[in-house]
Specification:
The chain has 11 helices and 26 strands. The protein is of the alpha/beta class. The protein has 2 domains: 2-10 and 388-501, Golgi alpha-mannosidase II (Immunoglobulin-like, Sandwich), CATH 2.60.40.1180; 18-383, Glycosidases (TIM Barrel), CATH 3.20.20.80.
Length: 502
């Protein structure tokens, strides 16, 4: 058994965790919306067509915010197609996923759903095929009280009070050549700055998120981010980062080391923001929004192949990835990478909520079940509240093809002053060795183990597809408190959460 240590001190903290770090994402893609959150013909649907089993799972999961309506979908979307009487809404060719969009679910339905789910809405405007005028009209529809064309249109649809949507994304992944209306950094930066400036004239209370790099390995990263920041710095509040990791065939050691790349990506972009701040002699700090992130468990060309072979369907079941234990471990590491930067990363949206790279799976007309990745999200969202502490790792490392120095233990320690407890999250990356983890809490007095759970399996490729309880949390009896030490035994390839009272 390998022995490792993590040293924390109550005087050395990173920052406060923002409530919006536990967001998710709904896009009109595959069965995310239709047969995911919305299925009027389902026996478990409520009076508005929302699946109650999904709503229950979302609330239990602890989701705090949801981004909508895309995603690649938004870059050719006309928001006005998705409001008003359903029988009058047009069916449209949808280019991003080569589908037919029936517009049965739109802005008003999403707002009703988000209120039932208890989540904050994050809207994205179309800066692919549209621009300033349409973004202003959408904002007016959502947030202006009354007495104008689009605010009165909303009221005629039954929403007397404005929705008060605070967070708005200025387009989606505009650095990507796959994006409808793809632009250079200069083109996008100029459009985003002008759009954002005018949106804040209409509603000064909103916060704006500009598109940063879509992946850490984009050829234009970080030049794209610096150019966009240069042009939009005075207008925006957040820069968006997106990140997905796949490569399950590269071997477990390299696969789980990818979270180190995410940590480096965040360090790079926060540094770029500081450079532009200094260049502009600004007193304003730009924060980061990782508003698409997740584990991509299928080959990169799979979605394209699926839609090319059978295009122009309504809600076709594309890219319905089934996650393993191994995937859940990387998923947990990615969540820790963001939370380790809680002072600058203030928003995060796991992608996607249902059926496509999803925590929650549904059968059309049938049951709902939870993927392996659901459980790490649940524990972070429900218990990682408060202050992130600096954690100094003392232990062995391994090397692999993609990284030279990978800690066997990945860790995050959160101090919840309100609950007078410390919450410890751990991932044992070793395939073969159990770890004895010694968490030293300097200047603190750990008392008792309130809760200790872990996620593991006898096969790292095990999923919950057939047996929905194959990979679920279990109690960890091998945790003890001694003086200011919390000592836990961690199985190979396992995720852990420990709640320790002070």
């Amino acid at each position: 058994m390998l022995k490792v240590k993590v040293i924390c001190d109550k005087e050395f903290t990173v920052g406060e965790i923002d409530n919006r770090m536990y967001g998710s994402f709904l896009e009109h893609m595959g069965r995310v919306i239709y047969h995911g959150v919305y299925e009027p013909e389902h026996s478990n649907a409520d009076e508005e067509g929302f699946r109650k089993d999904v709503l229950d799972a979302v609330r239990q999961m602890g989701v705090t915010a949801v981004r909508y309506p895309g995603g690649n979908f938004v870059s050719a979307y006309h928001w006005e197609d998705g409001v008003g009487p359903r029988e009058k809404r047009p069916r449209k060719v949808e280019l991003a996923w080569k589908a037919i969009e029936k517009n049965e679910f739109g802005t008003d339905e999403f707002m009703h759903w988000s209120r039932k789910a208890g989540v904050q809405p994050i809207f994205t405007v179309n800066l692919g095929t549209r621009g300033i005028e349409e973004a202003l009209q959408y904002l007016e529809y959502c947030n202006f009280p009354a007495g104008t064309q689009f605010s009165d249109l909303r009221r005629s649809h039954g929403a007397e009070e404005p929705y008060g949507v605070k967070l708005w994304c200025l387009g989606n992944e505009m650095d990507g050549i796959w994006q409808i209306g793809h632009k250079s950094a200069g083109e996008y930066g100029r459009l985003a700055a002008e759009t954002g400036k005018n949106m804040k004239l209409l509603d000064p209370k909103i916060e704006l998120i500009a598109c940063g790099s879509s992946l850490s390995d984009m050829e234009t990263c970080p030049e794209w981010d610096m150019e966009v920041l240069e042009q939009t710095y005075d207008v925006i509040d957040y820069l968006a980062l997106h990140q997905y990791y796949g490569g399950q065939d590269k071997g477990t050691a390299s696969f789980l080391a990818q979270s180190l790349d995410m940590e480096e990506q965040i360090r790079t972009i926060r540094g770029a923001a500081q450079v532009i701040k200094r260049k502009k002699r600004s007193t304003k700090d730009i924060k980061l929004s990782v508003d698409e992130w997740g584990v991509w468990a299928v080959p990169g060309n799979t979605v394209n192949r699926e839609v090319e072979e059978n295009p122009w369907q309504i809600a076709a079941p594309i890219s319905e990835q089934i996650y393993t234990l191994e995937d859940a471990l990387l998923f947990a590491e990615m969540q820790m990478a963001m939370l380790k930067n809680a002072d600058v990363v203030k928003i995060a949206c796991q992608s996607l909520l249902t059926n496509v790279s999803a925590c929650i799976m549904t059968e059309s007309g049938g049951e709902m079940w939870r993927q392996t990745i659901y459980y790490p999200f649940y524990y972070f969202a429900n218990f990682a509240r408060g202050t992130v502490m600096q954690g100094i790792y003392r232990g062995e490392y391994y090397s692999c093809k993609d990284a030279e120095k990978v800690p066997y233990l990945d860790q995050l320690v959160v101090w919840n002053r309100k609950q007078n407890e410390v919450i410890i999250f751990l991932v044992n990356r070793s395939e073969d060795e159990s770890l004895e983890a010694d968490i030293v809490l300097e200047g603190m007095a750990p008392n008792t183990v309130k809760e200790a759970v872990f996620l593991a399996a006898d096969d790292k490729k095990k999923t919950n597809r057939e047996d929905h309880s194959a990979v679920i949390p279990k109690k960890n009896e091998d945790v003890k408190v001694k003086d200011n030490h919390v000592i836990a035994e961690l199985l190979p390839l396992s995720f852990h959460m420990l709640r320790i009272s002070l």
